[in-house]
Write a structure and sequence with these properties.
The protein is 62% helix and 6% strand. The protein has 395 residues and is an alpha+beta fold.
Length: 395
């Protein structure tokens, strides 16, 4: 018990000395040992790395999981060392709602069939999103989090220890400076003729005491300097390791970009496949040959040509800027007509298209310069454009 009390008293004394030194430095009443410029640069770079890593980590978490409540729940599960429950993505949830709507509204109707097709695409998009979140969490978020919770905590601990060693060193320097000043004052020999012998003896005794105090302060200063230099070297090595951290984070960043590229590539392919199933193709705007909004008057012709979307003619029947060809005036070629069976229902987008019913037979043919993804279909007196993907051509 005595040993613990002595240690407690010693620690309290050290803490008080450091507090006094720190306070005096803040008020400019004590000198402070400055670190060299290289060390200060290492500290600045480490702080910047930590701050920006935190911001990138937090924003990436927002990107992968926009719902703040879900992020809090996942954080609690991680802190409790419990497995995070599987969560349905927004795309998968939308697919579920569309499938249920199709079942209730009629899966054989054009709207119901379209809902089913879109639901399948949304489900695939949700699965791709789930894979992307999993890959990004492992290859990008985990290394950043490991740095903040591992390496940075070690660096912070050693920096605090270095700060304490510096305060101890500066306190020893201040103590030695005061001891030397007191020794110099006490060593001034008084005039024996003008001073009583008793004062002369006391002055000599005080000088000897301050000399011992100076020797003790010098010894403490040497010990404090050694500990400070050792701790500064340890901290410097850790700070120089930030360069390796940058290299590791660079590799993780490349992996994050690769996973994001894969994810968006999958999304594009799924949506392109869905467009083909629905008879809509990229770059085709049905029902109008004009852009959504006119270009600004200040835009140069070159810029306009580069930035305005190219709006091809509907199914290749009329060039841009010309009136669409009236299908009723188009006569079928003498040869080249074929029979085709409709694979599934198709709802016409406008009057230039022909609505289709699954399993019906129609006559189809192509015209010169026509988009190869479209044909002219005839059923009785009705005529219109039909998408090739909805047809099975017969002999």
């Amino acid at each position: 018990m005595d040993f613990n009390m002595k240690k407690l008293a010693s620690d309290a004394g050290i803490f008080f000395t450091r507090a006094v030194q720190f306070t005096e430095e803040k008020f400019g009443q004590a000198e402070k040992t400055e670190l060299d410029a290289h060390f200060e640069n290492l500290l600045t770079r480490a702080d910047s790395t930590k701050n920006w890593t935190e911001k990138i980590l937090r924003q990436t978490e927002v990107l992968l999981q926009p719902n703040p409540s879900a992020r809090v729940e996942e954080f609690l599960y991680e802190k409790l060392d419990r497995k995070v429950p599987s969560r349905v993505t927004n795309g998968e949830l939308l697919a579920q709602y569309m499938s249920e709507a199709a079942s209730e509204l009629g899966p054989t109707t054009p709207y119901g069939k379209t809902l089913i097709k879109v639901a399948e695409a949304e489900k695939r998009l949700g699965g791709a999103e789930r894979d992307f979140i999993h890959t990004a969490s492992i290859n990008f978020l985990t290394p950043l989090r490991n740095f903040l919770e591992g390496d940075w905590k070690t660096i912070s601990k050693e920096r605090r220890l270095l700060q304490n060693r510096r305060l101890d060193l500066d306190a020893c320097k201040a103590r030695l400076k005061k001891a030397k000043a007191a020794e110099a004052k006490a060593s001034t020999v008084p005039d024996f003729q003008e001073t009583r012998p008793r004062n002369y003896i006391l002055s000599a005794s005080a000088s000897a005491l301050w000399s011992d105090e100076v020797d003790k302060a010098e010894q403490e200063l040497r010990v404090a300097q050694t500990e400070f230099d050792r701790q500064a070297e340890v901290t410097r090595l850790l700070l120089e390791g930030i360069s390796s951290t940058h290299v590791n984070h660079l590799r993780c960043l490349h992996e994050f970009v690769e996973s994001q590229t894969t994810y968006y590539g999958q999304c594009y392919r799924h949506m392109l496949d869905l467009q083909k199933q629905l008879g809509r193709f990229p770059g085709t705007f049905v029902g109008t040959t004009e852009p959504a909004s006119p270009p600004l008057s200040s835009t140069s012709p070159t810029t306009t040509a580069a930035t305005m979307p190219v709006v091809p003619s509907v199914a290749g029947l009329a060039p841009p800027g010309e009136a669409a060809l009236c299908l009723e005036e188009v006569a079928p070629p003498a040869s080249g007509t074929r029979k085709a069976r409709v694979l599934y229902d198709y709802e016409a987008a406008d009057s230039s298209e022909l609505a289709l019913l699954a399993d019906e037979l129609i006559t189809v043919y192509s015209l010169p310069g026509m988009d190869p993804d479209w044909l002219i279909g005839e059923r009785g007196n009705k005529k219109g454009k039909v998408p090739v993907t909805y047809l099975e051509l017969l002999s």
